[in-house]
Automatic annotation (TrEMBL), chain A:
InterPro entries: Perm_prefix_1. This is Uncharacterized protein. Keywords: Membrane, Transmembrane, Transmembrane helix. The keyword Transmembrane helix applies. The chain crosses the membrane at residues 86-105, 117-142, 174-192, 212-232, 244-268, 288-305.
Length: 316, 112
């Protein structure tokens, strides 16, 4: 027995389940010898015939996979779509969250802002790599153990509602969320890190500090509710009438207190008004208040009207 | 039409016929390489690395029985179509005939 055939058999049998090794070995050896004999019988050189036969049988691992009925793929069609969906969902949410949380923690513990950003990005990247590895490994194991996930069969009820193209785009939602977060952050920021100082060098908050025990928590709550609404809207993919109604209610809940506070001179910090002579002369304060009221009212009316138009267009 | 596309379609069409051909041919017991040559001679060229694992799988499914023949110079495993194999083969042949009838009907434009 020539060594090439022995090596081929050894390489093939290594990848075949042990209980069947002996039988496959004798059968495959006989088959290879038959094939070689057939070629040498036709006048071919024995060595060349052996090479040709083994080449025809192909890569030992591939042949073994056929014997063992094993799939030569990491994740097959059964799990591919689930794997893809789980991976996308997790990569879209977890690394970003981890990065922000770690970065913020680092920024509060240490003083180096740049370092905090670096640490945040690194941990987000590491999290993404970990997720990709473990999710893929999990599905590859499922594939190999033939474990059934008992996933519900696809049904037409799972079709996304409405047209395939979204009325609510991710970029719009991100922009709105960013605006809301900035507004939300502005409330404590103007109190603790204001840019105006009084004559003693003490900082003067922009808004009346007395409002912290009344309207400011309420406004902050409205902003948080608006954030939730943005997420709900994105999930729905379009404006529905309940969403329009809630949005209008939240718009009004924000605008009406602001307007009333402005008109009754209770929004701005009295200290601040005293600090700026210009505000106190010639009714400038009233002008500023009136212009702000008009702008707030216009934005609110515009927002509500725009949403009604979008909802109508969708339901038409 | 590229050769590659044609080859893929022919391969798709041929897939499965190796099972039918093997079950028919093995009504008379035979061993792997002899079966391969027998099939090739009758217009069923099957790759060796497809046929040998296929025979084992059909045996595990109970469609073939096997017996080692040690009388000759080289011990060989002889396969034979089992009773269960015959039943399955009958169904497969029926279906093959049905496919042929359907294709013929389509070609003639006979929609019944």
């Amino acid at each position: 027995m020539s060594s090439l055939t022995d090596r081929y058999l050894a390489a093939t049998l290594r990848a075949v389940p042990a209980p069947r090794r002996a039988e496959i070995s004798s059968e495959l050896r006989a088959a290879i010898e038959d094939m070689i004999d057939d070629r040498t019988g036709a006048g071919q050189d024995a060595e060349a015939a052996e090479r040709e036969v083994l080449t025809e049988l192909g890569q030992p691992e591939r042949l073994a996979a056929r014997y063992a009925d094993r799939r030569l793929q990491l994740i097959g069609p059964t799990y591919y779509l689930v794997w893809q969906r789980v991976l996308r969902l997790m990569l879209a949410t977890v690394p970003g969250t981890v990065g922000v949380v770690v970065g913020v923690l680092e920024a509060t513990v240490g003083d180096d802002r740049g370092r905090a950003v670096g640490v945040g990005i690194t941990s987000a990247f590491q999290t993404a790599v970990q997720i990709a590895f473990w999710v893929t490994l999990g599905f590859a194991v499922l594939e190999r153990t033939d474990t059934s996930l008992n996933l519900p069969e696809w049904s037409v009820d799972q079709l996304p509602e409405g047209p395939a193209e979204r009325d609510v785009r991710l970029t719009d939602t991100c922009a709105s969320v960013a605006m809301l977060l900035l507004t939300l952050a502005f409330l404590p920021w103007q109190h603790f890190q204001p840019w105006v100082s009084d004559t003693d060098g003490d900082r003067i908050p922009l808004l009346d500090p007395a409002l912290w025990s009344s309207w400011l928590p309420f406004l902050a709550a409205v902003l948080v509710a608006s954030l939730v609404l943005e997420v709900a809207k994105y999930r729905a993919g379009r404006w529905t009438w309940p969403l329009v109604a809630v949005n209008a209610a939240l718009d009004l809940a924000f605008a009406v207190p602001v307007i009333v506070l402005l008109l009754t001179d209770r929004l701005l910090n009295p200290e601040l008004v005293r600090r700026f002579d210009w505000l106190r002369t010639d009714g400038h304060l009233d002008t500023v208040a009136r212009v702000t009221v008009v702008v707030v009212a216009a934005i609110t009316v515009w927002d509500v009207a725009e949403n009604i138009v979008k909802a109508r267009r969708h339901h038409a | 039409m590229s050769e590659e596309i044609l080859r893929t379609h022919l391969q798709e069409l041929r897939r499965g016929t190796a099972v039918v051909a093997s079950l028919v041919a093995l009504r008379r017991p035979d061993y792997g390489y002899a079966l391969l040559q027998h099939l090739a001679a009758h217009g069923f060229p099957v790759d060796a690395n497809t046929l040998y694992p296929l025979l084992r799988r059909l045996e595990e499914q109970g469609l073939l029985t096997s017996e080692w023949n040690t009388e000759e110079s080289r011990p060989r495993k002889f396969y034979r179509t089992s009773d269960e194999g015959e039943t399955v083969l009958a169904r497969l042949l029926d279906d093959l005939a049905a496919v042929q009838t359907s294709v013929a009907g389509l070609i003639e434009g006979d929609h019944r």
